[in-house]
Specification:
Length: 117
């Protein structure tokens, strides 16, 4: 049996019928509300790291450890040092870039192979 967009789910006589269109619309609304609820949480995490940009590298490492992250990988490229930090509890994986002993940036790198969820 093929279902079209207007296919109806059987309901007892006199009861309301639900179309696939209703289900799709309600699912879309639920998805949008969930996304709006998650966005502030992601922004809060980004804001909590933004304060480290410009800080001395050693101090930023101490702060990341205090926040529950640990170093899982590091490498250098030219005059920059990149370190990968992971937190199993907070499900975070970030890369901190340090140049001239100052933090240049901290970015999400969820796809890094050393980060585990």
């Amino acid at each position: 049996m093929a279902f079209g967009v207007d296919a109806r789910i059987a309901a007892p006589r006199g009861k309301m019928t639900i179309t696939k269109r209703h289900v799709v619309r309600n699912a879309s609304v639920l998805l949008a509300v969930t996304a709006m609820a998650i966005a502030p949480i992601s922004a809060k995490k980004a804001d909590s790291r933004r304060d480290l940009v410009g800080a001395r590298g050693a101090r930023a490492e101490d702060v990341l450890r205090e926040r529950g992250l640990r170093v899982v990988d590091s490498y250098d490229s030219g005059r920059k040092i990149h370190s990968i930090w992971n937190s199993l509890r907070g499900r975070e994986c970030v890369e901190m870039t340090v140049s001239n002993d100052r933090v240049e940036g901290i970015n999400d790198v969820r796809g890094h192979p050393r980060c585990r969820w």
